[in-house]
Specification:
Two copies of one chain form a homodimer. With 125 residues, chain A is α+β, with helices and mostly antiparallel strands. Chain A is 46% helix and 14% strand. Chain A binds a DNA duplex (30 and 30 nucleotides) through helix 2 and helix 3.
DNA sequence: TGACATACCTCATGCTTTGATGTATACTGC
DNA sequence: GCAGTATACATCAAAGCATGAGGTATGTCA
């Protein structure tokens, strides 16, 4: 995962598989499209490098959390389409719980963060 | 950082320095006590291994974000007490913002997580 | 004497991201 | 035809960080 604006990328160490599973929850998708979808959903805050993407997909498949099939197109290169397995769906729920625990634990340590949103435009002068 | 119940530990890759700075915001503390404080605040969810703790402290000191002094006790081994610098305090604010952006980005991807708290005891039965 | 807690430090190992490189197809502009 | 860009897969060396074990030393308790 590479950063866009700040240094979010290197903070991602173990979270990439969770993102992949989460995107596949909404239906099968091929690798390249998964990466694009993560960018889109995160509003370009996260960007998945191919050196992270493909190894992570292979690992998830070896663990039985996703399955793949090759799909040829009338035009363009073949795609490897991934789908969530039942095991993978269950694992996603676990990992989302784990994510919540993780966030809670960190925020317990760093203290309450005031949830003040920065206004997008110059509303006050 | 090592896990306690689940596998929170390995998810921490780049967040340890932020935790250290956050704990030192409330006053100087020696390394070992910082680790204990992180455990206490996170309700034992996070545990900082010494192989993570001491290298991270050294890096932060080299970056000028914290300073240290040795302190001898009437009884027991000497302690290295760390304190936040002004630069460190400013950096902490940056990293807390970065943390918020990170959490937001991940949750944008994995979807809304219902914030339902598990009751601690057996209130219904 | 042994076990345990405090308190510092180092190091091999392993996992994951980064960033570059490689292959191939298809479209666009020159 | 050729260069540039986008799609779409894959691999690999290098670097970063946590893990877990090991080492040193002091102090307390049984």
């Amino acid at each position: 995962m590479r950063p866009r604006n700040t240094e979010l990328g290197e903070l991602l160490k173990g979270h990439t598989p969770t993102l992949l599973l989460a995107v596949l929850r909404d239906g099968p998708l091929h690798g390249y499209a998964i990466a694009r979808e993560i960018e889109r959903r995160s509003k370009e805050a996260l960007r998945l490098g191919e050196g992270s993407l493909y190894p992570a997909l292979r690992t998830l498949e070896q663990e039985g959390l996703i399955i793949s099939r090759w799909e040829t197109q009338p035009a363009g290169p073949a795609r490897k389409v991934y789908a969530l397995t039942e095991t993978g769906a269950a694992e996603l729920i676990k990992r989302m719980r784990s994510w919540r625990d993780f966030v809670q634990a960190i925020e317990d340590v760093i203290g309450g963060i005031p949830h003040v949103q920065q206004p997008t435009g110059t509303l006050s002068g």
